[in-house]
Design brief:
Elements (H helix, E strand, L loop, with lengths): L25 H4 L8 H13 L3 H16 L5 H20 L3 H17 L7 H24 L3 H14 L9 H16 L3 H14 L7 H15 L3 H18 L2 H18 L2 H18 L2 H17 L3 H18 L2 H17 L3 H18 L2 H21 L6 H21 L7 H25 L2 H13 L2 E2 L41 H8 L5 E2 L3 E3 L12 H11 L8 E3 L11 E9 L1 E9 L5 E6 L1 H14 L6 H10 L6 H15 L2 H14 L3 E5 L21 H4 L1 E5 L16 H11 L4 E5 L23 H13 L2 E2 L16 H9 L4 E5 L2 E2 L12 E2 L20 E2 H6 L11 H4 L5 E5 L15 H7 L4 E5 L6 H8 L7 H14 L3 H19 L6 H4 L2 E5 L1
Helix pairs in contact: 2-3, 3-4, 4-5, 4-6, 5-6, 6-7, 6-8, 7-8, 8-9, 8-10, 9-10, 9-22, 10-11, 10-12, 11-12, 12-13, 13-14, 14-15, 14-16, 15-16, 16-17, 17-18, 18-19, 19-20, 19-23, 24-26, 25-35, 36-37
């Protein structure tokens, strides 16, 4: 889309137009500089440019320039001429007349150099510096828009070096410089960094920078529309439009048509996009704005091709390419070439497709636009796959598949890794949606290759998970990275060339950098996954492809630290199978055995079958936002509350998600070595599946009857090796006490400020003292040893008002061997992508310091708090793991407390506890019915308390040497009672929601 100019007014002064956007007396609003007729001419030219009357503005400047050149030569006259030429360049840039803009900038720069040593007072020096800054920023804009990105960066760096000399109290030139850095990052495809810097600039740019603010908003709109966040994009565009209207800038208001067309195109609203592009094209053609017109022609060519108008697409592409080449806009011209390559392939002209695609890639590579390089490689891989589908390659099929993989897999890795540049999980999750097509292509090719080893490595890499980054980290391969042994022969030997990369990065400083650093939950690439459980050197998953991706596209794919694909050192006493699932359109499964059993396997579930099974499960569950009606439906008519319906659902899930070969292996191992342990790391799509419940054969044998089942979290959550910091004596004592005889921390139904007992965040367990089994539970802990909080009677442990985050932090830091939390948990919406927004509801008042927004008079404790602590809030802040160190065993019994794994990035309450030191967390997969819900909605008598029974079972399991085995035994007992009696209190709706999560 159309790039923004350097954000200055034509005369280089701050904008003082009338607040209502009116144009009366604009000449008086221009700071007097040169006297008449020049000051009035500057005002008239600015008026013409705001009204998109470019030719008239150029004519006014040409007349003034001719008059200035007739004056007797002096430093002041040369400065006047330099100023006029800089304004001419600004106008020509707006009109995308790059040749004329370059000439004007060269002449202006030469004049400024001539007078650099001339005597000038403090004000004169400031005026000269301002004009130098303007020309540098304008030259950077010109270089960027003609594809010379490194040279553009050098100009911006030079401007940054000169900036401290300039008196810029309101930060106007600083904002312009930052805006141009944002544009440069956008052109490089560094969307995350561009968004972060634009957001930081917007928060720090003064209101007086009236032309920079809307251009920042436009940049954010383009970033959001390019990364799949269309509602946010439209919000930015609407705000920008208000600013442009206030300024009376007719041209930029029209340009917004093209930006909105671009968003509509990405959103899939092709008719709207075509209509808006046509309107914008008419305006650009009328104004003679060739570059903007060429961009619209490029997009309209794509749309013409989509509707089958081959001749129209070809004509528009040719016109677009000719304009871009004439303007010297090399990257934009390459974009047209790439569209032309796609069009040529659709027409069967393979040689022309290769020529255009290679030509486009060469430009992208030369200019350092590595994301587009990856897009070209993916396009070529797709054409290879398409050709494999259309034609019989015979003996050369394996070679063709290998060629396609050598292109697709490194490119897909690079596109996925681009998300680490974004500062928020929401932005990263939307980016992953855009990259999903590339990932699906890779899995299809691996499946076609029938390569189990590569499928294993793909699953391991996909399941490793992003690492929490408490500080910003570069997502590019840094300078000084150890070279690949043979750069020229990097495997896979692609059908394309391999390329180097630039090491240059851009960064903000000062207040803007601090603002950016505090935004969102940052993540870093996953660790390298070593394909051996043993320590020491070994093969890393996707090793060759990762090296190729980092080399070709200049982006960090994995962290430097290695982790084994799973740890079996403490599991030799029983057979264990590790199962991992990965979403890539279809569902892919891998498994491998340890602990005295040997074997491995892979499974593959077609997308449609998997989606049907997952929908059937979702229909049986109480939705997080459905309230009492959703719970009523689940308890009265849902599949999990009906014996026959539950059996059908369990079989449906097994048929879609569980391979018969794995069941056979489990049976064989169980016969020889006893009940095995099944460790399952689900993909986000199947994270709510109650694996224990699966009916693995037609005889209604359930998986939990054959094995114990535990959920595993991503490998990135495993504790990293780091130098041990010396601990204070009290910390060492607390650690020893917590490991052996430390207290049990009980947080039982804390009273949430501002919410009555019968309100949505009211009581979970009923009035204190009303449940004999829960009183007995607390009593047993009091008899066995220390309990926190200190209570005289069991009833005092319930509905307390003093159990806030500060109290919890103190209790955990003092040393604890267990934490049992029973209360409200609010899960984050999956579509938002931000699992860290999940919250626990303690007795925290709204005035409590924290990262979650208050609810009435209460501030929840978010997973983001548990992870980041006070780092974003104070310069001397501490990470959450120091404030709330988790004991070895944690139980979070609340609604969907284990919903973390439904997200691409698992950083919710349960995994936050693992990150903070827990070895095992028992949590729930979906919204839990309380005992009161069973009474009111299922008409159970008050004496029957299913939730209490579950709490007692979890508590007993956490006191056992093997909590997974103990909890599984209770779940099997519940299954037996459900089969025998079919009563709703024994329904899997409650007990199958519980799972133990380990790393």
């Amino acid at each position: 889309m159309r790039d923004q100019n350097d954000g200055t007014t034509d005369d280089g002064t701050t904008d003082d137009s009338t607040p209502d956007g009116g144009t009366a007396d604009r000449a008086e609003a221009v700071t007097p500089l040169y006297g008449e007729p020049f000051d009035s001419a500057l005002a008239r030219a600015e008026e013409h440019q705001l009204n998109a009357e470019i030719a008239d503005a150029v004519a006014v400047y040409a007349e003034s320039l001719a008059l200035a050149e007739s004056l007797e030569d002096s430093p002041d006259v040369r400065f006047l001429r330099a100023h006029l030429l800089a304004n001419v360049a600004s106008v020509q840039l707006a009109a995308t007349d790059f040749v004329a803009a370059r000439d004007a900038l060269d002449r202006s720069h030469a004049l400024l150099d001539d007078i650099a040593a001339a005597p000038m007072g403090p004000r004169g020096r400031q005026l000269w510096l301002e004009l130098v800054l303007r020309t540098l920023i304008a030259r950077a804009d010109l270089l960027r828009r003609t594809g010379h990105l490194d040279e553009a960066l050098a100009c911006l760096d030079e401007a940054a070096r000169r900036l401290p000399e300039f008196d810029d109290p309101e930060g106007l030139r600083t904002a312009e410089l930052g805006l141009n850095r944002v544009h440069l990052l956008m052109d490089q495809g560094a969307w995350g960094s561009a968004e972060e810097q634009a957001s930081a600039l917007l928060s720090t740019t003064p209101p007086t920078a009236r032309e920079t603010v809307p251009r920042l908003l436009v940049a954010l709109g383009l970033i959001c529309s390019s990364t799949g966040r269309f509602d946010a994009a439209e919000d930015h565009f609407a705000r920008a439009e208000e600013h442009f209207t206030s300024l009376g800038d007719t041209g930029e208001q029209r340009v917004l048509l093209a930006h909105r067309a671009y968003a509509a195109l990405h959103r899939g609203e092709l008719d709207l996009a075509e209509r808006l592009f046509a309107q914008a094209s008419a305006f650009f053609e009328e104004q003679g704005w060739s570059g903007d017109l060429a961009v619209c022609e490029q997009a309209r060519a794509f749309l013409a091709g989509r509707r089958g108008d081959d001749s129209g697409a070809e004509s528009l592409l040719a016109a677009s390419l000719e304009r871009f080449e004439r303007l010297g806009a090399s990257i934009a011209a390459a974009d047209s070439m790439l569209l032309g390559a796609q069009h040529a392939y659709a027409q069967g002209d393979i040689e022309e497709m290769k020529r255009l695609a290679q030509g486009a890639r060469d430009v992208y590579q030369e200019r350092g636009v590595y994301e587009r390089c990856a897009q070209v490689d993916l396009m070529l891989a797709r054409t290879l796959e398409d050709n494999l589908n259309r034609a019989d390659h015979g003996e050369r099929e394996r070679e063709s598949v290998d060629n396609a993989l050598s292109l697709a897999l490194p490119a897909a890795l690079a596109l996925e890794a681009a998300r680490y540049g974004f500062a928020t999980a929401h932005a990263r999750s939307e980016w992953l949606r855009l990259a999903e097509d590339a990932v699906e292509l890779v899995f299809r090719l691996v499946l076609r290759r029938q390569d189990q080893g590569l499928l294993f490595e793909l699953a391991e890499h996909r399941c490793a998970g992003a690492s929490l980054a408490l500080t910003p980290s570069a997502d590019t391969v840094p300078a000084g990275t150890a070279p690949v042994a043979d750069r020229a022969g990097v495997f896979p030997n692609a059908a394309m060339k391999t390329y180097g990369h630039a090491d240059a990065t851009t960064a903000l400083g000062g207040v803007a950098a601090e603002a950016a650093a505090s935004a969102g939950l940052r993540v870093a690439p996953p660790p390298k996954v070593r394909m051996s459980a043993r320590s020491g050197p070994g093969r890393v998953a996707l090793q060759e492809y990762i090296e190729a991706a980092e080399f070709r596209y200049g982006r960090r794919i994995v962290d430097q630290e290695e982790v084994p694909f799973w740890v079996t050192d403490d599991m030799t006493s029983r057979p264990v199978v590790q199962v991992r699932l990965a979403d890539a359109g279809d569902l892919f499964m891998t498994w491998t055995w340890a602990g005295g059993a040997r074997g491995f396997g892979t499974g593959h579930g077609p997308r449609d079958e998997v989606d049907r099974a997952v929908r059937a499960l979702a229909d049986a569950l109480p939705g997080a936002g459905d309230g009492a009606e959703g719970m009523r439906r689940a308890l009265t008519s849902g599949a999990l509350a009906d014996h026959d319906g539950e059996r059908r659902l369990a079989r449906t899930l097994a048929e879609a998600l569980w391979p018969e070969g794995l069941t056979a292996q489990i049976r064989q191992v169980a016969e020889r070595a006893g009940r095995p342990l099944v460790r399952i790391q689900p993909s986000p799509r199947v994270a709510q599946v109650p694996w224990e419940l699966l009916a693995v054969d037609d005889e209604d044998v359930r998986l939990i009857e054959l094995a114990d089942v535990v959920t595993t979290a991503p490998a990135s959550l495993r504790p990293r090796k780091a130098p041990k910091e010396p601990k204070a004596p009290e910390e060492s004592a607390a650690a020893t006490r917590s490991a052996d005889t430390g207290p049990v921390v009980l947080v039982l139904d804390p009273r949430v400020p501002g919410f009555r007992a019968d309100s949505p965040l009211g009581s979970v367990l009923g009035p204190p003292g009303s449940d004999p089994e829960l009183l007995s539970l607390v009593g047993r802990h009091l008899d066995a040893g220390a309990v926190v909080p200190s209570v005289a009677t069991p009833a005092e442990a319930f509905r307390r008002t003093d159990l806030d985050r500060d109290w919890l932090g103190g209790a955990l830091r003092a040393g604890a061997r267990r934490l049992l939390y029973v209360g409200h948990v609010s899960g984050a919406p999956v579509e938002g992508g931000q699992s860290e927004d999940g919250t626990l509801h303690l007795a925290c008042a709204a005035g409590t310091t924290g990262l979650a927004a208050p609810l009435r008079t209460h501030r929840p404790l978010s997973a983001k708090d548990l992870l980041l602590g006070t780092l974003p809030l104070r310069a001397d802040g501490e990470p959450g793991a120091r404030i709330w160190p988790a004991p070895a065993r944690v139980a979070l019994i609340g609604c969907e407390s284990g919903g973390d794994l439904r997200f691409a990035e698992s950083f919710g309450p349960a995994t936050a506890m693992l990150h903070n030191g827990a070895e095992l967390v028992t949590a729930t997969r979906w919204v839990l019915p309380t005992s009161f819900a069973f009474h009111r909605l299922a008409q159970l008598p008050d004496s029957v308390r299913p939730l209490t029974e579950a709490i007692v079972a979890v508590d007993a399991a956490h006191e056992d040497a093997d909590p997974v085995c103990r909890l599984g035994r209770w779940q099997r007992e519940q299954l037996d009672r459900w089969r025998a009696e079919g009563r709703v209190e024994h329904s899997p709706l409650l007990w199958a929601a519980l799972t133990c999560i380990v790393v």
